[in-house]
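Illustration: ABC transporter substrate-binding protein.
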Amino acid sequence: MTILRRHLLSATAGALALIAAGGLAGSAAAQDAPLRIAFGDIASVESLNLLIAMERTKERGVPMEITFFNSEDVATQAVLGGQADIGVGAPYAFIQNSGAPIRMFFRMSELLFFPVVNSEVYTDWKDLDGQEVTVHSRGSGTEALMRLMETREGIKYSQISYVPGSEVRAGAMLQGTINATIVDASAFRLLQEQGGDKFVRLSVEGVEATDEALYANTNVLDARAEDMKIFVEELLRTWKDIDDNPAIVGELREQYGLLADLPAETVAEAVPYYEEAVANGIYPLDGGSPEVVQGDIDFLSAAGQFEAGAQVNPEDFWTFGPLNAAKGM
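Result:
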């Protein structure tokens, strides 16, 4: 956990320096300049599939870089300001509210999270009425899901706190500093292993939506179209390889020297995490579709994070050019 926190502090400092320094806008970047990804989370085993796809893209002659920011908000601002070319998230509401010229182009993962409470304090959703809950970040899938359940259950949280990283939130649960949060499968398994029956998962049914997607400035998508095509090809290939054999994540992590300074016990969770993720269908193989966009909007509308009009055009939020090009369509 200490090393993970050091990753976060280092990434935050790097992000602030990057923003302060400015940098070339995507539209002005030379074709041999790296595609720069802004990731609003800490470096963890969850990011290994993306890191592997980046390494494979580099092998095909497209340089890439990644910076881990302390929130999705900061990452989005980096993309808007030209300090990064690609962001990670699902910024539907941001696009609708701001009219920003960014579009999603690859669906990385589906929403599968585990609302969990300390059973010594709470036992069900109703117990959270008037209580504080902790999620990943503003506008994240974790917040949308907790907002949706607030509406469904007819309750009102006293406050929503934002703490990036499922591992960090799970650690806070184990330490007793928070009592209600939402985590991914790997962090929930950790809570079960170390806390036993102390931590209880609250029921969530009938929820399907995008957790994370890749998005970029429209000028970057146009100016770097061929590089984007190659990147999406490697994303599709990597997702398919992991779906066929989750153990390949461990092999490729070692091959490329990825996340080498994470604790051994965290690294040991990588393959089990992807085995469970594949079994639960977290990582879709198609990269996205207009039907997926409509499903996302329906979910976010129900969660109170999106104002859906009578007519919603998927292309107001997504561009399918890179995905269609990668699929040879």
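Reading the tokens back as a structure: The longest helix spans residues 2-21.
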